[in-house]
Design goal:
This protein has one domain (17-149): Arc Repressor Mutant, subunit A, CATH 1.10.10. The protein is built from seven helices and three strands. It has helices at residues 3-12, 16-40, 46-58, 65-71, 79-88, 110-131, 136-150; strands at residues 63-64, 92-96, 104-108. Helix 2 (16-40) packs across helix 6. The longest helix is centred in the first third of the chain and has 25 residues, at 16-40. It is globular and about 65 Å long.
Length: 161
């Protein structure tokens, strides 16, 4: 890098942490745009897709709403509204727990599974467009660095830790 470029970079960021954070944010924005475009074709958000994916993984069991919320990739401040929309489309069902009437159990329906199956191929292609230019070794390194960056901020017992 030329000395002028290094000086310009130093002025753009307050710290190496800020540079890394902003690079991460920009990368998320660019990669998310491709995913948003894909999910829009299925009238879903990425978060709604994640709910269906988690419910499919739990089959044949249902998941309590709070457990489902904890497992999401990103926080959902209004999970009830999100579940309402998916239930209205008959992609999931909700029932009261017989053991704890306060708990609501959520399960994916056959229509939800069919939608996930329909999305699978286009989503693999989307992931290829997002990160397919990286080698398997680079992807593994990237995943490890991201895990290390978020580890101190994960709650105890997190599946993401």
């Amino acid at each position: 890098m030329a000395p002028e470029a290094a000086t310009a970079d130093a002025r753009r960021f307050d710290s190496p942490e800020q540079e890394a954070y902003l690079a991460l944010w920009r990368t998320y924005d660019r990669l998310r745009a491709l995913e948003d475009e894909l999910f829009a074709q299925f009238e879903l958000t990425a978060q709604q897709y994640n709910v269906l994916r988690l419910l499919r993984a739990a089959r044949p069991e249902s998941l309590p709403t709070l457990v489902l919320a904890e497992r999401l990739v990103s926080r959902a401040p209004d999970i009830t509204r999100m579940l309402d929309k998916l239930e209205a489309r008959k992609l999931l069902t909700r029932t009261r727990s017989t053991e704890d009437r306060r708990a609501v159990l959520v399960a994916v329906t056959a229509a939800g599974i069919a939608l996930l199956d329909q999305i699978a191929g286009p989503l693999r292609a989307c992931h290829g467009r997002q990160l397919g230019h990286l080698s398997p070794a680079q992807l593994k390194s990237l995943a490890a660095l991201l895990k290390a960056a978020r580890a101190p901020h994960e709650p105890p017992g997190s599946l993401w830790a």
